[in-house]
Amino acid sequence: MASRYGTCLAFILLLATVAPCPSASAQHTLGAGSSLSVEDHERPFLTSPDGTFSCGFREAGENAFSFSVWYTGAVEKTAVWTANPGAPVNGRGSRISFRRDGGLALDDANGTTVWESKTSGGGGSALAVSLLDTGNLVISDPSNNSGRAAWQSFDWPTDTLVPSQPLTKHMKLVAGYFSLYYDNDNVLRLLYDGPEISSIYWPNPDKDPFKNGRTTYNSSRIGVLDDNGLFLSSDNLGVNASDLGPGVKRRLTIEQDGNVRIYSMKASTGGWTVTWAAMAQPCYVHGLCGRNAICEYEPSLRCSCAPGYEMVDRQDSRKGCKPMFTVTNCSLQASPSPSPEQRYKFVKMPHTDFYGYDLWFYQSVTFEYCKKICLETCLCVGFSYKLEGQGVCYPKSVLFNGFTSSSFTGTIYLKLPIDFNASAPTATARSTAGLACDPNVSVIVQGSPGTFGRPGNDAKWPYLFAFAGVLGVLDLIFIATGCWFLSSKQSIPSSLEAGYRMVTGQFRRFTYRELKDATGNFKEELGRGGSGVVYRGVLDKGKIVAVKKLTNVAGGDEEFWAEMTVIGRINHINLVRIWGFCSQGKHKLLVYEYVENESLDRHLFATDRTLPWRERYRIALGTARGLAYLHHECLEWVIHCDVKPENILLTREFDAKIADFGLAKLSKRDGAAGDSMQLSHMRGTTGYMAPEWALNVPINAKVDVYSYGIVLLEIVIGSRISEQRTAGGERLEKSQIAEVLRQVVASGDIEPLVDGRLQGQFNPPQALEMVRISLSCMEERSSRPTMDDIAQALAACDDEDEHPAYRS
Description:
Blueprint: H1 2-16, E1 29-31, E2 35-37, E3 46-47, E4 53-61, E5 64-71, E6 79-82, E7 89-90, E8 95-98, E9 104-107, E10 113-116, E11 128-131, E12 137-140, E13 151-152, E14 160-161, E15 166-168, E16 172-175, E17 178-182, E18 188-193, E19 198-202, E20 222-225, E21 230-233, E22 238-240, E23 250-254, E24 260-265, E25 272-277, E26 293-297, E27 301-305, E28 309-311, E29 321-323, H2 340-343, E30 344-350, E31 352-354, E32 362-363, H3 367-376, E33 382-387, E34 391-396, E35 402-404, E36 411-417, H4 425-428, E37 442-444, H5 461-487, H6 494-503, E38 508-509, H7 512-518, E39 525-529, E40 532-538, E41 544-550, H8 557-567, E42 578-584, E43 587-593, H9 600-604, H10 613-632, E44 648-650, E45 656-658, H11 663-666, E46 669-673, E47 676-679, H12 702-717, H13 734-747, H14 764-777, H15 787-798
Parallel strand pairs: 26-35, 38-42
Antiparallel strand pairs: 1-11, 2-8, 3-4, 4-5, 5-6, 5-7, 8-9, 9-10, 11-12, 12-13, 14-23, 15-20, 16-17, 17-18, 18-19, 20-21, 21-22, 23-24, 24-25, 26-27, 28-29, 30-36, 30-37, 31-35, 32-34, 33-34, 33-36, 39-40, 40-41, 41-43, 42-43, 44-45, 46-47
């Protein structure tokens, strides 16, 4: 399949780059010195030899014109290329000129040049501008034997591709805030890049490229629509118009609603018909309705405000909605203040979600737990909860990319002040047309877990009883099946029993042969440390993974498997996901998700790049949340024991993911008791190890707190703490560093301490808070804060950078 795509692309490109014939007539070729006035816009500047395309002036508004190329037969002169999108020229006095120096230029009525091709050639008057049968506007020099165009419109697409026109890695199609382009992983994507947020929304951002049917293993980055209506892309995307076949004039266009469509022209009328669209659900496009707004499609697209919010500008729904209540400033709460249950309630919106901007992600949690998290977190403005075999919880920090769709099974619960009247007419008017709020919206006062429908809707009870009955039958089947397995356990071979246990788990057991093949015999090394070497691997379904060969592992297969059942269930957005393991004799390996942007140390301590402050703070907060999850929320209490920049991996968006957690459980140890454990040898890395490691005392989670404090300080200063020196060149002791930090905290003068490469571009309150936390992490063990305390403190300060709506 890939080779067929490559052949098609090569053939189409060959057609696209054919140079104009030197003997072309004046109808489609003009020499230097030619021009056209905007007053003559009824007459085309050029026409292709076969008459398919024309170029010239077309109306772009009242007394406004653009210089464009269009299908001659299109009834509305729909542009397939425009020289000056967004900058139309005056309807009087403007002119397109092919200058003597070989440059094509568009001049406005006042004489200013709005657009020019910025080309010139050595051929002088021999230069020619032509419109080819492909729709490519070309400036060529007939005396140039190479046949290469000096300039061509195909190299500068606007919002449209025509058949045989390539989209390459150096190009993008743009419509407003939306663009279609090849990302740095070689995948063709749609991006919303607005004034407040930016996010990728196609292909499905919840899936990796391979699950979306794409591949990252082709760096050519090229896509072409052919004459039959088939669009082929080097990332394995292949789509076609519904009227597939030759003889139809088509175009592929990204539009102001963020969707990409293939249009086919009806020869009889010159009108256009949509024959393919990238987004089947228009509201899945990001950024259509702005902050706190919801996109609905019934049957046409409209934007409305979430309950408790009103339009910022009723003439422009993309500006979003603003709260109709006073927003709490998280850093200025009165103390003591009423409990969260006394201050907030939730409004339920079924089949509605706001994509992205999750404070955290929780799996296998109850509705009550999810609600409690949002109630107790000041920055939480609502939470999404849905059952997918287990409860999945997404507390939200801001409300962007809202949509309502009957196909979406989740529910959003919006957090509102308890005294806010969500049923009042002024509070529930959600659309620009003043429509009443959705009748499915209900208020959950005090967060009653049973309030899933509207009050008084007794007709739903029979369905609830029926549902409960079905669950009861399923429970009986499950129990009976489990009893059968237990009763027949003696007759099941141990290998099959292990396999059965893995089927019921959340990850899988690999054979050593599978991982050897996946890594190409452990060919590409990603990194190494005290626990083993990490290799890049590709599983049989194309998923990229990181495979770690472990060293110094205790116990046999059964003990290793028992530990993995705990580690494999650990799941948090700021922890590297473990997909499985291998345990065959001496071979002990772990299979992790592949995190593409290397580790924190590669960015923080590099001499050829500078990590911006915003990313630094987000990494610090994400790391704190990941460790807080390990320490306080895991099914079994987990200490990392080796927190350092090398074990903090970064995604493409610079979100932190902690690696190598749980390895302390797999290493040789003497036992555990209570909240402490006694390891048979010291773990960690010099410079990040807490003092108690050398005191032969039981270890608890405070060793991670100490290490995190060192990492936090390094994020601020941009260099290793272990490399700090006095003016005389002597190495600074930790006590001396702590004294410096106390002076900084006392004076508030943080700038001399912050990484100078930032050139003052940082947030002083955030930096001061990070230093204060770092200092507290270096105190005696009993005086150190918990990771939960640290995460909350950093989150409270986060609104100064990430959440401007919370500013006072």
